[in-house]
Amino acid sequence: SHMTLSSTNTSLLSNGTIVNGTALLEQVVRDRRAILPRPDIKHMMPFRPTRNPLPGSHPTPGGVFPLPDTALYLVKVLPPSRNFEGPFVIIDELMERVARMTIPD
After folding, report:
1. Rama region for 82: left / alpha / beta (φ>0; ψ in -120 to 50; rest)
2. Can you give the pTM of this predicted structure?
3. Nearest to 74 by CA among 56, 52, 45, 101
4. What is the CA radius of gyration of the chain?
5. Domain extents for the chain?
6. What is the pLDDT of residue 95?
7. CB atoms < 10 A from the CB of 73, how many?
8. Sorting pLDDT into bands at 50, 70 and 90, what band is 6?
9. Which of 11, 94, 96, 101 would you call most buried, defined as having the most Cβ atoms within 10 angstroms of its Cβ?
10. Cα-based distances in Å from 81 to 42, 52, 56, 76, 84
C-alpha cells in the first residue's frame, strides 16, 4: 500500500521510494498497452484517393459484397437505368417517403 502526500504530486511507496504520480500512471498505461493485440500492418497500403478510379484498378482483388436482401429486391424491381428518360426525382420528397414507408423483412 502507499501513502499519498497531498501537497505534491508524489507518492511514498511502502519501501520509502518517492515516485512521481504522473510517471506511475504513464507506466500503468504502457503496461496495459503492451498486452493489447496489435494488427499486422506490414501488408497495409496507404490510402491514396483518385478522382475517377477505373474498375479493377485496386491492386488487391475483392471488395465486391452482395447487396442486402431488401436492397437486392429493390434493384430487381426497378427498371434498368438506361431506360430512364425523366422526370427527375425530387430527392427531399423521395427521402421523406422512404423514411415513412415500412419495408418488409
Report:
1. alpha
2. 0.26
3. 101
4. 30
5. 3-35, 69-100
6. 92
7. 13
8. very low
9. 11
10. 42, 20, 22, 12, 5
Over 70: is that where the pLDDT of 10 sits? no
Concatenating the DSSP letter of every residue in 38-71 gives ----TT-------SSPPTT-SSS-----PPPHHH
CA dist., res. 87 & res. 84, Å (int)? 8
CA 72, distance to chain mean position in Å, is 25
pLDDT one-digit tens code per residue, 69-83: 998 899 899 888 788
12 with 3: CB under 8 angstroms?
yes
Strand partners, 18: 12
Q: What CA–CA distance (Å, rounded) separates 46 from 44? A: 7
